[in-house]
Amino acid sequence: MIMAKGFVETDSLCREIVKDARNGVFKPVYLLMGDEPYYVDMVCDAILDHCLDESEKDFNQTVCYGADVNADAVITAARRYPMFAERQLVVVKEAQMMKGLEELAVYCQAPLESTVLVIAMHGASADKRKSLYKTVSKMGVVVDSQALRDYDMPKWIPMYYQSKGLQIAPDAAALLAEHAGTDLNKIAIETEKMLKNLPEGTTQVTASDIEKNVGISRQFSIFELTKELSMKNSAKALRIAAYIGSAAKFAMPMAVSALYTHFYRILKYGALLMSDPRPGNDKKAKVLGVNPFFFSEYDMAVRNYPVKKCMAAIALLKEYDYKGKGGDVGEATDAQLMVELTAKLLNL
Predict the structure, then answer these.
(1) 87-108 pLDDT, tens per residue?
(2) For residue 316, what is the domain's CATH number?
(3) How far apart are alpha carbons 250 and 324 in whole angstroms?
């Protein structure tokens, strides 16, 4: 079984593996790999939690790290038979560090039914042209967990909350995405921390919940800045820009990246309207990649920033990305650069 490329399919497969693990259903071999550690950890932890009873683990569970073992040692461990248990578990963490990783393909061609072997790679992937990947694809399960992009987060966050039996408001999801970026583990940790502080029976998470429990100020965020820029509300936009730029953890390249994403969406939306002046919500959603909750903001933004102005905005962002990385700024501070950029965007 091979992991599909899309993160929706990745999430679905991993949750199915977790469900099977809780029900005592296991494959003989799992190859967990990819740039995104969240799903690798999810599957590995579920197997460690449910493969064996606590009383069985002393004699039947082997957890090792790739830097400390070689293929021969792993194969020897995997070929042992369980003691007083139905199965044994062998887990190789950080498997990308192991010498002779491909040699595990020999064992995977005829794995023991009484052994569950987990090969977990972090931030790396097995070569899909070689034997290990091909063999595990046939005999077990491959989870290929690719890193998400910022434009994936408005869809991933509600999906994650739904798996928890919760709904999250679109503006709350956007605020959380701004805080955590594409760090799925960070989102999961912040969510678990927040849930402990929410009233019992809560089913809807709001932006206020995120602000109170995660420590984010919605009023002074990139999310709010893009909104005020869309409306060309100069006073608020400049005030937010000054606050953001003065923050201790402010990074100009990250701010520019978020603004670029926003203006690129406006540009794509403007191009759509040129060919289809009255697009349906399905078309809007496909082009913008945002929740319908935000359509009205982009309707206003595209009027304030038609295609030519959007192109000029993107050119400005490229210029300030260069400046934010130390190029040709003189003695200007990050806060001054942020306000300067915002003023120029407002004046387009």
Answers:
(1) 999 999 999 999 999 999 999 9
(2) 1.20.272.10
(3) 11
